[in-house]
Structure formats: structure tokens, C-alpha cells
Amino acid sequence: MVGETFLVAPDGRGGTSYTWLTGPNDGYSFGSSPAAETVEQHGEHIRDFLAMIDPQTGYVGG
């Protein structure tokens, strides 16, 4: 899913919140803990999340 946009922000508990801004479901997000330390780690978290998305529903799982 090239070209997707995420809002990446601290979650206030030592992790990171990722909100999928260009996804089909308004406000859909996921979190990761502990917080990523590099841009590459953020990218890995996002790629892993997108790999779980059902293209029919736009949600994780089927």
C-alpha cells in the first residue's frame, strides 16, 4: 500500500500511536510499545500493520 499516510505520535505511556489518515476507515489506528527509536522502525511497524489489513474491509483480519 504505497502512498499511505499515518500520523505518528507518542501515546503518553512510552509507546507510539499510528493513525491511518488515508485508510478507508476514519480514525483507524494501532499502537506499538516500546516507542520506535528510528524512522526505519516506524516504517517496519507500519508495513507490518498494512500487511494484516483485509482489502475488503480495510480492517485487520478478515
Can you describe what's shown?
The structure is a single chain. This protein has one domain. It is 21% helix and 23% strand. The chain contains one helix and three strands. It has a three-stranded antiparallel sheet with strand order 1-2-3, covered by helices on one side. The longest helix has 13 residues.
Number of strands: 3
Average pLDDT level: 94
**Which class do the helix and strand fractions yield?**
alpha+beta
Sheet with most strands: 3 strands, antiparallel
Helicity range:
10-25%
- Tally of helical runs: 1
Q: Rg from C-alpha positions?
A: 11 Å
Please tell me what the overall shape is: globular
Oligomer: single chain
Low-pLDDT parts are none
**The number of domains:** 1
Order of helices and strands: EEEH
The span between the termini is: 17 Å
Q: Tell me the β content.
A: 15-25%
Strand order of the largest sheet: 1-2-3
What is the topological layout?
Blueprint (H helix, E strand, L loop, with lengths): L5 E5 L5 E5 L8 E4 L6 H13 L11
Antiparallel strand pairs: 1-2, 2-3
